[in-house]
Amino acid sequence: MMRLPSYTYRAPKTVGDAASWLAESPDAMLLAGGTDLIPNMKRRQQTPSVVIGLRGIPELTAVTRGAGLTIGSGSTLTSLVHDAGVRAKYTGLWQAVAQIATPHLRNMGTIGGNICLDTRCTYYDQTFEWRKSINFCMKKDGDTCWVATSSDKCLAVSSTDSAPALIALGATVTLVSAAGTRELPLSDLYANDGMHYLTRRRDEILTGIHLPSSEGWRSTYWKLRRRGSFDFPVASVAAAARFDGDTIVEARLVLGAVSSRPLEVPVAATRLAGQSLTDELIASVADDAYALAKPMDNTDFELVWRKKVVRSLVTSALRELRGDDMREARTKLARHPLIVVS
User: Fold this and answer.
1) What are the φ/ψ torsions at residue 291 (nearest 5 degrees)?
2) pTM above 0.85, yes or no
């Protein structure tokens, strides 16, 4: 049995109290649903002396609807799966959240926690004894990245499902600290570094996610994993486009689980703007995404095959945006049709 290390638990009732306590303790960490932090603590990957629980802060679970949508970072994944407005207007986000883990874990896990999910790696996500036996890795206690021993930075992979979907939808986030508040595009929250994968400062709390109006937009999320539930993505694609009739006005395409951060495909936005989704255009954009994807040998499945699957996932995502009936393909890949609501 893996046991938790000793720590002091603090339970604030307001964001202000949480931010103050976080500033007081240099190695304090935030606990929302605990589905990521608690296993990491048991494996001694993270050993904070103070854990600040956020579940008792009501404002973090608020969902506000207006021209767009604001989601409190403490909202559970299950609450979003059951939200008819999210499913109808922000379908890609709904599809992403619906495929995270299992019902039990979605009941506990939060949207903020999934956004801030620790990067993963075959050599990192092991017990303390296993990691010690290989002389640890660069991400924790060692100085070598065992994925690529000549690399000067950690290559652990981003495995969040919600972040690619949210970035494709143009999300921004609010970060609060004792020193003040700032907002930034969600894309700017990430760095392509397996160890320092978030630009969030140590004393900041992610409090809210803001989505612009969905008027005219269609979105989708496709995910590859070994099983139809529980598993993290080993390749994923989020796509969103604003249409005027059959013509795309603007679009975003984001790859997941092929880098240490969600990976935007900027050339796709350029190619798609002002165009209709013909088979030829879809194939061209899929080739662009394939060229950009650089999966490493640090998770499930063979990396060359994972790279090839990116092309297939992009093709399926763009066909679904076009309006093609992709339920059979979805059922084969995800073991669930994840029907798009029009």
Assistant:
1) -65, -35
2) yes
